Amino acid sequence: MATENVYDELIRRGFAAQTTDPEPLRELLGKESVTLYIGFDPTADSLHVGHLMGVMAMTIMQKYGHRPIAIVGGGTAMVGDPSGKTEMRKMLTREQIVANTANIKKQLSRYLNFDDGKALLIDNYQWLGSLNYIEFLRDVGRHFSVNKMLTFETYKRRLETGLSFLEFNYQLLQSYDFYMLHKDYGCKLQMGGDDQWANILAGADLIRRMEGADVYGHTFPLITTATGQKMGKTESGAVWLDAEKTSPYDYFQYWVNVDDRDVVKFLSFFTLLPMKEVEAVKNIQNEKLNIAKTVLAYEATRLTHGEKAAQQAFKAAIAAFGSRRIPDDFLPSSTIQRGAVSANDESVPSIKVDKAVVEKQSKLAEVLGDYKLTSSRGEARRLIKQGGVYLSGARVADVDAVISADNVTDGRVAVRIGKKKHYYLVLV
């Protein structure tokens, strides 16, 4: 276990909104390996950037010798959490949830070491799936006050649009998760986003009532970008941790393009670079700030997709935008390549397309939409009208422009969308 207290590291990195008992928790984390848990919603087949605060919190905790449990809410996903939502969420089948859970564990394995029980992934369906409702009401439900529950902002907000009894049960079920993890795994700490504070308090209170034991809760802030946008959202949708849904190159570009005001904060949250180095970035600007964004993108991509994918994305960005020199003394703990780096064009993402698109002189907008370089043909036409699409290095002015043999070099066609996205259409 690291000698420094992880509680201080969480504070330093900004992973602190509310804590049930700060001093006793800090003392506990300093004297023993603590089992903690964070819950994840398995209603999609991938986590996204919006989940990264929880993922990184677990990563930091494990780095300091504590044992994280990732709870995938296979049971609660069949009910629905009203927290932060204005309408009831779609429920999935058990089969869908099991498949999603398997994908989520693969993604978490990039961050956490699951060997020899150093981290666990548990589906709460394990105990919720066979729960006896009468016994649950008798043993657990009696400890909850409806009047108190209705004072929580989560429920007050949902009452305005309609709160189902199904969702009203969610706090009881999540509290029961904490109770079962404490009873079976010795879990003493629940962590989560600040919107989970009421549920965390309820779970700690349930354990005190049923077990007579003291446990703890700790939340981290809900992150929005400097522009007020929800973390991990772009015009084209969520930024996924699954490489099939968001390519490592696009993932890298998401971080490169963050607002200048977010760079230091995101280096703190989404990399493991020492805070002494991160804090040195606070007063830089202009070109050095762009270098800091490149290191942020590299480190975030390395954690999510691995070293090789991060190197490829870095070289692809260089091929698209020109060489970039990373000074040896700049955020030195990063494994990014130092000095002047250049890359060949093969680093640019390639999309295989039927060579018939050239033979038939297909419309560029149709090709972009059909091969998912834009969300649709209509989106491609809109971007062309706005002057945001380049073909073979030249801006496309006509929405009916076609791809012809004149655009082909070495069996491929160079396309740029906006300022940042470069692709090769490789004819096959």
Structure in words:
The chain is an alpha/beta fold and 428 residues long. It folds into 3 domains: 215 residues, Rossmann fold, CATH 3.40.50; 101 residues, Tyrosyl-Transfer RNA Synthetase (Orthogonal Bundle), CATH 1.10.240; 78 residues, Roll (Structural Genomics Hypothetical 15.5 Kd Protein In mrcA-pckA Intergenic Region, Chain A). It is 42% helix and 14% strand. It has a 6-stranded mixed beta sheet, with helices on both faces. It has a 5-stranded mixed beta sheet with strand order 11-15-14-12-13. A hairpin with a 2-residue loop joins strand 7 and strand 8. The chain is globular and about 75 Å long.
Question: What's the layout of helices and strands?
Answer:
Layout: H1 6-13, E1 18-19, H2 22-31, E2 35-40, H3 52-63, E3 67-72, H4 94-108, E4 120-123, H5 125-128, H6 133-139, H7 146-149, H8 153-159, H9 165-168, H10 170-185, E5 187-193, H11 197-211, E6 216-220, E7 233-234, E8 237-238, H12 248-256, H13 263-270, H14 275-279, H15 287-305, H16 307-321, E9 324-326, E10 339-341, E11 350-353, H17 356-359, H18 364-370, H19 377-385, E12 389-391, E13 394-395, E14 412-417, E15 421-427
Parallel strand pairs: 2-3, 2-5, 3-4, 5-6, 11-15
Antiparallel strand pairs: 1-6, 7-8, 9-10, 12-13, 12-14, 14-15
Helix pairs in contact: 10-11, 12-15, 12-16, 13-15, 15-16, 18-19
Can I get a quick summary?
With 428 residues, the chain is α/β, with parallel strands linked by helices. It has helices spanning 6-13, 22-31, 52-63, 94-108, 125-128, 133-139, 146-149, 153-159, 165-168, 170-185, 197-211, 248-256, 263-270, 275-279, 287-305, 307-321, 356-359, 364-370, 377-385; strands at 18-19, 35-40, 67-72, 120-123, 187-193, 216-220, 233-234, 237-238, 324-326, 339-341, 350-353, 389-391, 394-395, 412-417, 421-427.
